[in-house]
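During the second year of the project, the team shifted from modelling isolated chains to modelling whole assemblies. The rationale, set out in the original proposal, was that interfaces cannot be judged from single-chain predictions alone. As a representative example for this report, we include one of the complexes processed in the last quarter. Its constituent sequences, exactly as entered into the pipeline, are reproduced here:
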Amino acid sequence: MSNLKAPVEPFRIKTVERIKMTGRRERENILQKAGYNVFNIPAEKVFIDLLTDSGTAAMSDNQWAGLMTGDESYAGAKNFFHLEATVKNIFCFKHVIPTHQGRAAERILFEGLVKKGDFVPNNIHFDTTRANVEVRGARAVDLVIDEAYDPDTIHPFKGNLDVDKLKKFIEKKGPKKIPLVMMTITNNSGGGQPVSVKNVKEVNQVCQQHKIPLFFDACRFAENAYFIKKREKGFEKKSVLEIAQEIFSYGQGATMSAKKDALVNIGGFITLDDDQLAEKLKSQLVLSEGFTTYGGLAGRDLEAIARGLEEVLEEDYLEYRINQVAYLGQLLDEAGVPILRPVGGHAVYLLADRFLPHIPRHQFPGWALTVALYREAGIRAVEIGGVMFAHKDEKTGQEIFPALELVRLAIPRRVYTSAHLEYVAEALANLYKNRERVRGLRIVRESQYLRHFTIRMEEL
Ligand code: P71
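Output from the structure prediction step:
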């Protein structure tokens, strides 16, 4: 039975932003106009927006105050040096290269490292990372442990990379074809699951044997470090900062989307040790992002990132953050709503095929659930299932569906209160009771790449 209480927010609210509930008939019209695609709904018409935790955080008074100290000099702004010092303190690599967001960091790193015919292993590549590897004619390979694909298996570090799979893969392809190995912490595509220090250490050993650099996709590194403190033996008494420093000590660099654990609305960076590679990346940066001390950001943005990186390591914040997501998971679990377990660091993932067993995969149960959730309660979530990830078999032309049919409820940082989450849980519990009313969908129009953003659908 229920043992979790709503976590107490370790902040009070100084500024508020109004959100408005729409009427049911209005939402019906909006859905129709949007082609039954929640990406096409104006955000003002959403009551609780759980589409993503990326770039949606509330900044603190300290971060807002930092914006006023923005030094908008073209080169050498003081805020760059603050950011550089902060990143070096946590990540402990020699070079810090700002970028406008995570995918720019990925593109620039891969331009420097990855060639046609190469392979890049990862626990699970996030979609932008995969796309940025594959656009270079290389292959992105997912080597997460098998447990990650079973939504019922409880494992403390379900994001771990499978070390045996990695060894065999390197043997098969040869280290020359593998310019880097990546680890995504936490593993977003596998349910926001953490990676253990033990696993990072073992992966690093294998990489070192073959002289392959190990890089982190570090978007949610603080949430990952907090899970380590709570779940991994020997780390209970270490600070989250010390744990983060230890993780990064086993690699050669990282890409970061600051829109997640740096608690800002825009920004990113690359950080690494290799001098020669850093020079190469900086010359790429100047071509498209900007000079090496701002990388496509304003001075004030750099300051907000630096301050956000300091705040995200405050342990009362992380305790509240992880517990808030777990709290929503528990409310749903108690209502019998099928969810992926354990609950991740930034989101609760619904098992849409179990929620809507009467809708076959080719009628997109995950997508149908996002439509129903908006219709019933003005809540926006995102499908991570058949629409986002199905691909056509090259020979037969048949659609092959991904292993999991998920709907992600991503929780923006410091934005919603426990009452908001209770509203979400209640709406989902009601919807679950009336689930047989939810209908499947048919595709009306789709584009060739990343079809989920623009697809238009029709209800059956
Ligand atoms: C998320 C996002 C943002 C997103 C991206 C694409 C479609 C829908 C939503 C972004 C990530 C991420 C990881 C592990 C790199 C990026 C790219 N996640 N790695 O989860 O989760 O960062 O958005 O700053 O370019 O909603 P970027």
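The chain has a mean pLDDT of 96. The chain has two domains: 24-53+314-459, 61-311.
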